[in-house]
Specification:
By secondary structure, the protein is of the alpha/beta class. The chain contains 19 helices and 23 strands. An eight-stranded parallel barrel has the order 4-5-6-9-10-11-12-13, surrounded by six helices. Strands 14-17-18-23-20-21 form a six-stranded antiparallel β-sheet. A four-stranded antiparallel β-sheet has the order 15-16-19-22. β15 (about 465) and β16 form a beta hairpin. (2R,3S,4R,5S)-2-(hydroxymethyl)piperidine-3,4,5-triol binds near residues 67, 135, 321, 348 and 385.
Length: about 575
C-alpha cells in the first residue's frame, strides 16, 4: 500500500488548520476537537473555497428532485434514483405553504421523515426554501399570503396592472417569510444535531418576468430616493443621486435587484442567527452572450453579481441553474459564477446526457458541487430543458461521473482547495438540433463549417491544451487507443478529464472517453523527457491503494481512457544526455 500524500500530508493538515483560523468571515467555525460535530461551513483562502462538512472538504455529488417531491409519500420515488446516481447529496424543496398553512401554526413533519430517510440512505441534504419567490411567483407561499394582495403586495407594471410576482418592498411579506424561515432553522437546530442538512437555499430563482421592477406608488417613492451609500461605495462610483441619475438605463433593473437581494439578505441573517448553515441563492440565468431582456429581472444574473454581493454579503453562494446545452455558453456561465467571492456550486443543471460532461468543467473551475435537476421517479420530465424520460439510460451518464469521483471526493475537494486542479469537458456539441432554449445551441452555420473540413483540420475542435506548470497536457476525444489517428470526437459528445497537481512532476489523472498526453513546457530546459511511471489505483479513506503500473501500449500513445473508471498517478521526468 502506498500513501499518495506521504510527502504532503503534514503540510496539508497544517494548512487546513491555519486556513480555518484565518477565515474570520466564517465566524461559526468552531473546530474544537475531532469528536465535536461542527457546523458545515464554507472557508475561503487565496481565491479558492472549500465546503467543510464534518470538518472535511466535501464535494457535493448531488441531485435535485422534481418540484413536488416534498411530501413523505413522494420519497419512495426519490431514494432509488439517488442511489442509482451514486449521489451523496439530495436537494429537495421545503415549502412555506406546507410548513405554515395557517398563519402562526407550524408543521415540520415532512422534515421528520426526510431527515430520517436521508440518514438511512447515507445521503446529506440541501433544503430549498420555496417561499416568496419560486421562479418569479409566490405559488409556494400559503394561501393566506398569496391571496391577500393588500397585505402582501405584488409587483405593479408601468401600466398599473399586477404581475404574479411579489414586490421586494412589501414589509409584511418580508416579516412573514422571515418568521417562517426562522422556524425552519429552529427546527433544524433542535432536530438535526448531526447536520444531515448541510446547506439551505433561500427562495428559488428570485426575480420577476415581465417588468424590470415594481412601479407601484410605494416603489416609485423609494426609486426616487438616493441610491444607498453602501452600493455607491461598494461599486466605487464617483457620483450620488437617485437611481435614474446614478444608473441611467440600468436603473430599473438594478433597483429591483437591490431590493430582492436585501430581502434575501435579511432572511439569511435571521436564519443564520438560529443555525449558521451555508446559504445559497440560485439564479435563473440570462444568456451571457445574448441576454435580451426577457429574463428574470432582479435575480443575481451575471450583470448584477457585484451588486448582489454588496446587498447580500451573508449569502455564501450565488449558484447557477444551467439549462444551456452548448459547451461555449456553459463554459462562460461556469467562469462567471466561479469567483474569489463566490464558490461555484451548480445548483441545477438539466438531466439530459449532453449536460453530464459539464461535471468535469465544473470541477475544473474549483466547483464545490454539481446537482442535476429532476433525477427521480416522481413521473415528471422537463424536456426540452432536461431529458424526455428518467430511466436507467438517463441516469447512467451522471452515475458514471459520481461513481468515478465518490471514492475520492474528499481527496479531490482537498486538492481543489489547497492545490491546483484542471477539468475539461468535451468541447464539440454533437446533440441533434432541437427546440431552441434561450439561444443555447451552436448555430447551424457553425456546425456546417466544421463538417466541410478534413479530419486533421478538424482535430482542433476535439483538442484541449492545459498549462500545468512545468508540464503541459493535451486532451483529445474520439480516437483509437493505439496509434496517432486524429481525434474525431465522441458521438454523442461525452468525454471529460480531470487533473490535479500533486507536485511539480506528479499528477492525479482521470477521464472518460479521452486521451491525455503530457509534454514538457518551455520551462523545462533538459532536452529529453519521459513518462517515468504511471500507477493505476484507487482511494480508500483518503489513502492511495496501488493496483498496477501502466506501461508499453498503455503509455506509448498517451493515456487512453474509456468508459471504465481508471484513476492514475502520473510521474513525468526530464533528463540530460
Ligand atoms: C428551474 C427551477 O429552479 C426548478 O425548480 C424547475 O422549475 C426548473 N426550472 C424547470 O423544471
Amino acid at each position: 500500500m502506498y500513501h499518495l500524500f506521504s510527502k504532503i500530508t503534514v503540510p496539508i493538515c497544517a494548512f487546513i488548520i491555519v486556513t480555518i483560523s484565518a477565515c474570520a468571515v466564517n465566524s461559526n467555525v468552531k473546530i474544537l476537537n475531532d469528536n465535536k460535530i461542527t457546523l458545515p461551513t464554507i472557508v475561503s483562502k487565496n481565491g479558492k473555497h472549500a465546503f467543510l462538512v464534518d470538518n472535511k472538504p466535501y464535494l457535493i455529488l448531488g441531485t435535485q428532485t422534481n418540484n413536488s417531491a416534498n411530501y413523505p409519500g413522494a420519497l419512495k420515488d426519490v431514494w432509488p434514483a439517488v442511489k442509482k446516481t451514486y449521489a451523496n447529496t439530495l436537494s429537495i424543496p421545503i415549502a412555506w405553504e406546507q410548513v405554515e398553512p395557517v398563519e402562526g401554526k407550524f408543521d415540520f413533519s415532512f422534515l421528520d421523515s426526510l431527515i430520517k430517510q436521508a440518514q438511512e440512505n447515507d445521503v446529506r441534504l440541501t433544503l430549498l426554501w420555496f417561499a416568496t419567490w419560486k421562479n418569479n411567483a409566490p405559488h409556494y407561499a400559503p394561501s393566506w399570503v398569496k391571496l391577500d394582495n393588500k397585505r402582501f403586495p405584488r409587483v405593479m407594471k408601468k401600466d398599473g396592472s399586477l404581475l404574479n410576482s411579489m414586490s421586494p418592498l412589501g414589509e409584511n411579506t418580508l416579516a412573514a417569510d422571515k418568521k417562517a424561515f426562522i422556524e425552519l432553522m429552529r427546527y433544524l437546530k433542535v432536530n438535526d444535531p448531526t447536520h444531515t442538512v448541510i446547506m439551505v437555499q433561500v427562495e428559488n430563482e428570485v426575480g420577476t418576468y415581465g417588468s424590470k421592477r415594481d412601479f407601484s406608488p410605494l416603489a416609485q417613492k423609494v426609486f426616487e430616493q438616493l441610491v444607498p451609500q453602501a452600493l455607491i461605495n461598494g461599486l466605487a462610483l464617483d457620483k450620488t443621486g437617485n437611481w435614474s441619475e446614478v444608473f441611467g438605463d440600468n436603473a430599473d433593473e438594478y433597483f429591483h435587484a437591490w431590493y430582492i437581494a436585501r430581502f434575501c439578505q435579511e432572511i439569511t441573517v435571521a436564519g443564520k442567527a438560529i443555525k449558521n448553515l451555508p446559504i445559497n441563492v440560485n439564479v435563473a440565468l440570462r444568456n451571457p452572450f445574448f441576454p435580451g431582456d426577457g429574463y428574470s429581472m432582479g435575480g443575481p444574473t451575471d450583470n448584477v453579481i457585484d451588486l448582489w454581493k454588496i446587498a447580500a454579503p451573508d449569502v455564501d453562494m450565488i449558484t447557477p441553474d444551467i439549462y444551456f446545452r452548448d459547451h461555449k455558453t456553459v463554459s462562460k456561465v461556469l467562469e462567471l459564477y466561479s469567483r474569489a467571492d463566490n464558490p461555484l456550486f451548480v445548483s441545477e443543471i438539466g438531466n439530459d446526457q449532453p449536460y453530464s460532461r459539464y461535471f468535469f468543467s465544473t470541477l475544473g473551475q474549483q466547483g464545490i458541487g454539481f446537482s442535476p435537476f429532476g433525477l427521480d421517479y416522481t413521473d415528471y420530465y422537463n424536456y426540452p430543458l432536461g431529458a424526455k424520460k428518467v430511466d436507467d439510460e438517463t441516469i447512467a451518464p451522471f452515475a458514471e461521473n459520481y461513481k468515478l469521483l465518490k471514492p475520492m471526493a474528499d481527496v479531490w475537494a482537498k486538492l481543489s482547495f489547497e492545490g491546483e486542479v484542471w477539468g475539461v469537458s468535451e468541447p464539440f456539441d454533437t446533440q441533434q438540433s432541437q427546440k431552441k432554449v434561450w439561444n443555447a445551441q451552436a448555430t447551424q452555420a457553425e456546425k456546417d463549417s466544421y463538417a466541410e473540413n478534413s479530419a486533421k483540420e478538424n482535430a482542433h475542435h476535439y483538442t484541449q491544451k492545459l498549462d500545468l506548470g512545468l508540464w503541459d497536457a493535451e486532451v483529445t476525444y474520439g480516437r483509437p487507443m493505439f496509434w496517432i489517428d486524429p481525434p474525431v470526437g465522441n458521438t454523442p459528445s461525452s468525454g471529460g478529464a480531470l487533473i490535479a497537481k500533486l507536485s511539480e512532476n506528479e499528477f492525479l489523472v482521470t477521464a472518460y472517453r479521452a486521451r491525455i498526453t503530457f509534454s514538457p513546457s518551455n520551462e523545462i530546459t533538459a532536452p529529453y523527457h519521459m513518462v517515468e511511471r504511471v500507477e493505476e489505483g484507487h482511494f480508500e479513506n483518503g489513502k492511495w491503494i496501488f493496483e498496477r503500473v501502466w506501461n508499453g501500449d498503455q503509455t506509448d500513445w498517451g493515456l487512453n481512457f474509456t468508459s471504465r473508471p481508471h484513476v492514475l498517478k502520473v510521474t513525468m521526468a526530464a533528463y540530460h544526455p
